């Protein structure tokens, strides 16, 4: 296991290098001068020079890159041009909300998805199976931001049960906090429930046709016990794979949901940065989210190796 | 496969049918494919014949009919400029489908080239796949937003952004099937006959590795339409006055309470197209790739 962990950690390094390179390169892809967005007619050449110096644009590209790596490795992601605070603290301030939202949605999606998929698999071919699977397909075909808007219209505007957006800190008002998270969590989870339900169903169908399931059945064990004790554990690998993929997708979709529900998370910070061309925020934010994504994948791989010893020996 | 199996297969099929006809018959018997195909076809026809079908011009303002509820004249209602939502949605569908199709072509071409090169030429494999890994490490939608926003809002840039975001996964899928097919005996036979790398790769390997790619591209089409709507909604899609699904929804956002239809109908059409494409993909997968049929 230690060898596997080591091998897996080493394999992350080149990807990490490329990811950071791409995050940095954002500033070069943009057509025109990156400073143009922040200057207006009244800006003097001195202003331009000062901004270029602040962004480090007055130095040769290789030096810029080396300096950037040097700073990133010491945890300094630079200074936001618009917010005028360090990028790292801007991200860390908003990260808990994004992670919380993604985690709640993941729990909801996995719980509901695995239950629905298992239910459908055990009733293969019946109308129950078909309706559950149709719902799953509908779920993963719906545009999430649109669903969010509809939920706001129904539950906030018409019924007035839940807030239409904004974030209430947990410690200030626990009930208000719970209410403010309900709609964003559902919006974020719906698409992923569909994926997990479909994957669980097909994994369970593979397992159900195996000999040991028939043996368990002929021993006279109850149906539910067989599914929970023998079925699910053996269907775990594909479900875990899909969960890993989804954890990454959730980080991306959280960006959108934060936008729809006006939640002050990292996603909203990055989109704000992108729309206002605040490069340090874009670079830092992208790098940060990708590193989290890579970490999630690493954890999923290690879970594989824990569940299935064959993976370690590959 | 042993010779015994082959014989049995021949006995079971007394008269040989052309593989293509067999394929069509299986497809037409597949419920998901038929339903999905019909849904998609309806929207496709609407989009292609938008000029003939749409009752109004998509950009025609009518300030006397602002934010009107759905009626016999404006079946989906009107927006804050008095523009007919049905007409805008039909025309928006044209642009959205065009973008989706272009993304499919982009990822089909580049995903195939990268995946084939990486699966066939082992020396390229490591470097190409590490680059794909790095691209895949960015949440796809965030990558697309960043590319679209930094390059500037335009139809081409949206296609480019979504193409870049969907190519790595496609390349992985092509690579995986190339890795399987390249070990098969007919490839060895072609090599023994002195066929060039390019001929082996394109005539023998890729031709036999198409099934997963076609299924993948159907899903790419669906997700490209969803993603394009999202980019337009955030404001980095094709610039106004162009009508896209996401753009119409974004316009309706500020009038959601007094005129929910502006937001509702374009979203429903997206749902229908994407559902259709996903069903189409499920059907193709069942028929083309019987191993994963459930």
Characterization of the model:
The complex is a heterodimer of chains A (314) and B (294). In chain A, 77% of the residues lie in helices and 0% in strands. Chain A has 314 residues and is an all-alpha fold. Chain A has a domain at 95-261: Orthogonal Bundle (MetI-like fold), CATH 1.10.3720.10. Chain A is globular. The model of chain A has no long low-confidence stretch (mean pLDDT 79). Chain B has helices spanning 3-12, 19-28, 31-48, 50-53, 85-120, 122-137, 140-151, 155-181, 185-192, 197-205, 210-234, 245-252, 261-288. Chain B has a single domain (42-59, 73-292), classed as MetI-like (MetI-like fold, Orthogonal Bundle), CATH 1.10.3720. Chain B is elongated and about 75 Å long. By secondary structure, chain B is an all-alpha fold. In chain B, helix 3 packs across helix 13, helix 5 (85-120) crosses helix 11 (210-234) and helix 5 (85-120) runs parallel beside helix 13 (261-288). The interface between A and B is large, with 48 and 44 residues.
Annotate the secondary structure layout.
The complex is a heterodimer of chains A (314) and B (294).
Chain A: H1 2-29, H2 45-55, H3 61-73, H4 87-122, H5 127-141, H6 144-158, H7 174-208, H8 211-218, H9 223-260, H10 266-276, H11 279-307, H12 310-313
Helix pairs in contact in A: 1-11, 4-5, 4-7, 4-9, 5-7, 6-7, 6-9, 7-9, 8-9, 9-10, 9-11, 10-11
Chain B: H1 3-12, H2 19-28, H3 31-48, H4 50-53, H5 85-120, H6 122-137, H7 140-151, H8 155-181, H9 185-192, H10 197-205, H11 210-234, H12 245-252, H13 261-288
Helix pairs in contact in B: 3-5, 3-13, 5-6, 5-8, 5-11, 5-13, 6-8, 7-8, 8-11, 9-10, 11-12, 11-13, 12-13
List key phrases describing it.
heterodimer; A: 314 residues; mainly alpha; MetI-like fold; 77% helix; globular; B: 294 residues; disordered N terminus
